[in-house]
Amino acid sequence: MATIIQPAPTQTSTDDFLPLLGTDYIELYVGNAKQAAHYYKTAFGFQSLAYSGLETGVRHKVSYVLQQGKIRLVLSSPYHSNSDIAEHHRLHGDGVKVIAFWVDDAEAAFRETTSRGARAYLEPTIERDDSGEAVRSGIYAYGDVVHLFVERKNYHGTFLPGFEKWESEYNPSPIGLEYVDHCVGSVGWGEMNKWARFYEEVLGFNNLITFDDKDISTEYTALMSKVMTSGNMRIKFPINEPARGKKKSQVEEFYEFYEGAGCQHIAVATNDIIFTVGELRKRGVEFLYVPGNYYDTVTDRVGAIAEDLATLKNLGILVDRDEEGYLLQIFTKPVEDRPTMFFEIIQRCGANSFGKGNFQALFESIEAEQRRRGTL
Question: What's the whole-model pTM score?
Fold first, then answer.
């Protein structure tokens, strides 16, 4: 089957039953939130924003909130072993628990999604402090991932009720990260269509692009993917599942070590990928190796670009083009000991696609890492 690219219809406020204003925050459950916060500040340039824990009256978990551009990361750890957070971390290691959406009406979002078959995670709940009130609700998605709907039009505090401003003397400079471009979910065999339907039927998403195992494959491994997008195109979720190959694909490796479906990687956008990646490398972030001969044919494939090709080659940044323009992208190695979650850094120069022309080089790089780990 060929790649299908379907222009998502522009939905109006009357036919978009779940208008999503953007990604509000992403919450990771981690083994040590204080140390994880130090890592994301040091390596990725996130800034201290808010804190919640024993000192703020929260007895079951501690959370550090970091921000850069429009990206908010919440890093949470349990205080006790007999908690859902501890169980999540025992099973998955560090990983994404919450992908939260910013909405105008959290109660309506909950009602619309649960009436369409979503399983309730959090009933609409009003949270208050001296800075006003926020409303949150939530539903379950694939694996242990949940989506929260966050209504904050009547809240004027630093983050949410229950959090206080986090003042820190240690503030490494930002590196130019602007917003969450997309989050990729990896699911099990035969589950891609199920979860694509979930986003279509329950959240009103559209199938923007479909990649089959001929589009995303090498001699050894393959996967299939459907890219789902919200009506206003502000939220994009590729859903990946493994496909038959001679050896174990990256989706299978993720599924094995994460012990279930989950968020495989978070793509964050920058307006200057050369600066951003240069800073990340200086701060110790490791990236997938790109074969040097990849750059021999880049100009023939993508045409003229504004960036210097030698600089891109030196940094290992990939290039691809679609009908709307071109993009630059690079992928980190996993940011924890399990070969699970990683980050993509992306700069869009008009392009709306996901780098199909880079799949071959990317897969070969991933397979090289799998070979080193003995998991290919």
Answer: 0.91
